[in-house]
Automatic annotation (TrEMBL):
Residues 283-298 have a biased composition (Polar residues). GO terms for cellular component: actin cytoskeleton; cytoplasm. Residues 283-303 are annotated as: Disordered. GO terms for molecular function: actin filament binding. This is Gelsolin-like domain-containing protein.
Amino acid sequence: MAPHEGLVHLKEYDVKDSNVELIGSDIDHKVKFNSAATEPAWNDGQIGAQPGLHIWRIEDFHVVAWPKNQYGQFYEGDSYIVLYSYSVKDKDGGSADKLGHEIFFWLGSKTSQDEAGTAAYKTVELDEFLHGAAIQHRETQQYPSEEFVALFPRLSIKRGGVASGFRHVEEDPSAKEITTLLRVFKHPAAGRADSLIVHEVEPTWQSLDDNDVFILDKGDKIWVWQGNKCSPIEKAKAAQVVHDLILAKHVDVEVLSQAEARSRVVVSLLGGKDVDQLSFQASRPLRSSSGQQPSGETTARPKRLLRISDASGQLRFDLVKENQTVRGSDLDGNDVFIFDTGKKIWVWEGSQATRSEKASWIQFTQAYIRYVQESAADSEAAVAPVAKVVQGNENAAFLKAISV
C-alpha cells in the first residue's frame, strides 16, 4: 500500500483528549500485546549506535520506517516518531565518545486516538531502549517547536494519512479534477535560515495571503502565485517544490506575481472570480512556540515551576514559583519538576527521583495543561510543545530557558 492511502479521518483530533494520557489505558495494553517482547524498529544495529535522523510512522499499532526520500514530509492524519542522534561535545568543544538523543512524537491534527496513544507509548519505549537519557518531545502539527523545525530544510504537511481512504494527487495523476493548494512560508520557529514550511491548505481564494507564495496544482498545469510581500527565499523554495512536482509529470508551470493583472487567474481558479479585493490575508496554519506570531503579537502564559514529589509518603504536585526567575538551584535531583516558560512546557527529571515520581510526569503534565485551559481560557495550552529532560543530559534549549 502507498504511504498515504487509506480512509479519511472525518473528525478533527483534539490533542487534549488523549495522546500522552493514554499510557496505562486499554490502548497501552493493546500496544504491548502487538509489540511483543522486542520492537524490530529499534533493532536494526543503527538506532542508538551512530549519529543520524530516523523517522517512523504509526500504522495499525506498529512502528513502520518512513522512507528516507520523504523525510520532512508529514500527513495530518498520522502520528510519527522522529529520533535525532548526535555526537556530544566535550568541555573543550571536541567530540566525546557519547551520543545524545532527542525523540519527538509528532501528532497530526487529524490523527486517530489509537495512533497518538501508540506514538506516545513507543516514544517512552524508545527512550528506555536508549537507556533513559533521551530528551522526549511532544510535537503537535499546529504548534511545532524550534528544535523540531530545525531538523528539516523543508517541512511539508499535507492532507491524508495511513488510516484514511484519501488518495493524494501524487498517487493518481490521471484523476480528472485535481486542485491542490500549497502555502510556502518562513516560520518564526525555524531555527535555520534555509528552513521553510510547505503546508497544504484549503484550495480556496480565502487561503491566499500577501506575505507568502502559493502553488496551485490543477493536474494539467501548475500555477505559482507570489504575494506582494513574500521574501526571495520563499520564492526560491517554492521553485524547488515545483521542480519536485514536475519530475513525476510533465505539465506547464506559470509563475505570477500578485502585482500582475494576470495573477487574478489564480484567484478565479480558486473560486474568487467575482472577488474584487486587491489584498489578501489569511492566518498561517502553524503557530510559533516562541510566542511571536506573524502579526507581531506576543502571547505567553505566566511562568511557573511545579514539583512532583512523594517525599511526604504521598505523591504531591505543588507550585514552587510563579512569575519569578527560575534557576538551576531551584531544582532538586530527588524530585521531578514541570517548568512552564509561558511558551513551552519542560519536564525535568532528577537523577534520584523515585520510580513513582518518574512514572507520573505524563499524567501531572496533562493535568497542569487542563488546569491552564480551564482557569485561563488558554486553548493553545493543549497544543503547546512539551519536552522532558533528565538531569545530567539537559540540552542547550533547556539550559537557556532555566537561566532566563
